[in-house]
Amino acid sequence: MPHSSAKEDTDAQTSIPHWYDPSSTGVTITDGDGSRVVDDEGTEYLDFVSQLYCVNAGHGNRAIVNAMIEQLERVQYVSSAKRTPARAELSDDLVAVAPDSLSNVMFSVSGSEANELAVTIARDYADAPKVLSRWRSYHGSTYGAGSMTGDPATRGPLEAHASTTGAVKFLPPMTYGSPFDAETPEELAAAAADHLEFVIRNEGPETIAAILTEPIAGTSGAYTAPPGYFERVRDLCDEYEILLIVDEVITGFGRCGDWFGIQTEGVEPDLLTFAKGVTSAYAPLAGVMMRPEIAERVRSGGFDIGQTFGGHPVSCAAGVAALAEYDDGLIENVRATEGAFADRLSALEREHDVVADVRGRGFLHAVEFADPTTGEPFHDPRVDEGHNPVKDVIGEASNRGVLVGGGRPTTQVILAPPLCTTADEIDTAV
Ligand code: PLP
């Protein structure tokens, strides 16, 4: 990889530009192959953030491209209210790999919309207005999904616009920087679950439709839950008759070593939302999976309004092909390589006294930076102004040919390469 002429990824250092900014000096990506992308000057980068945690099968996957072309040549679009083979096939494939509790799929377009759809369905089914979600979570940028989001960086700009009606936050079981006084993972799981029960009881269980949570906090910092935590959450949901919605927008499709992150926890959700990796980002697609009795309610008079591009046939064709790729060795590659990835990152914590914590699972990891003498982050993550040395790390990684993600809060760097990434590539990137 030629690094000398690589550019600093200034876009990744500031906020991600979701509009075209002609004055931007960041990397302009023109090509991609496997775990690598190439910029307009021919410089190659290891894509250790899968763009936006979504190119799970890697760039330039011929099988997915061919499936999309084939669909385009047959019929490019079929109404989301009608049947078409790609949509049916993808639904069957999703149900086959999802937790056993989930039997039905409703398609949408983006992760934000899928979360809003899941919340709407849950509120209707439970006939209750509130949804509990975690501080340090990201569920999307639209009106409703933004209300559920609880990360300090996104919250600021969204707060004035998001609806707060029915959106209640609780504290997550963070293994680093925890607000709970716990010595062991077991104590942390118990303290965080007790806190959740306190919130449920004080809000009034009959007013709560659902708990919405990522199985592993994605952009908030790759926090895995301590053992036993999700079992307690499931028990609380059963005891107080609250639906459990898992947001698998990042953690789904092999990213964390199983088809879905919640499967590693051995817990069955009532609803599950997905997006990103379902098509490996070859086309936009998202959706909600749900228990049969919830699907029945949707059919028999609940919320059953589709979106024009929900389940677009070309996206569904990409999804069928992407799932086949995950099944055909990619998830296996994550399982075979995740140990080496974690070990390699753990060495950073031992070798560099600015690294305070490394954490994650599968191909989703965070490296947390803090002042070794005080344990304090190098800048105030709520007021993200002035000099932030973590952004220097992101820029310098890009200079050296590795694209990484900036977490929220911006005290950390997130590593989430495509699932086809090899142990050698991990070694180079780390
Ligand atoms: N949920 C999670 C966990 C996410 O990480 C994201 C996006 O990063 C979303 C939802 C929103 O998805 P989208 O950007 O497709 O609306």
From TrEMBL:
Belongs to the class-III pyridoxal-phosphate-dependent aminotransferase family. InterPro entries: Aminotrans_3, Aminotrans_3_PPA_site, PyrdxlP-dep_Trfase, PyrdxlP-dep_Trfase_major, PyrdxlP-dep_Trfase_small. One of its GO terms (molecular function) is transaminase activity. This is Aspartate aminotransferase family protein. It comes from Halomarina halobia. Residues 12-28 have a biased composition (Polar residues). Keywords: Aminotransferase, Pyridoxal phosphate, Transferase. Residues 1-34 are annotated as: Disordered. It comes from the Archaea. Residues 1-10 have a biased composition (Basic and acidic residues). The keyword Membrane does not apply.
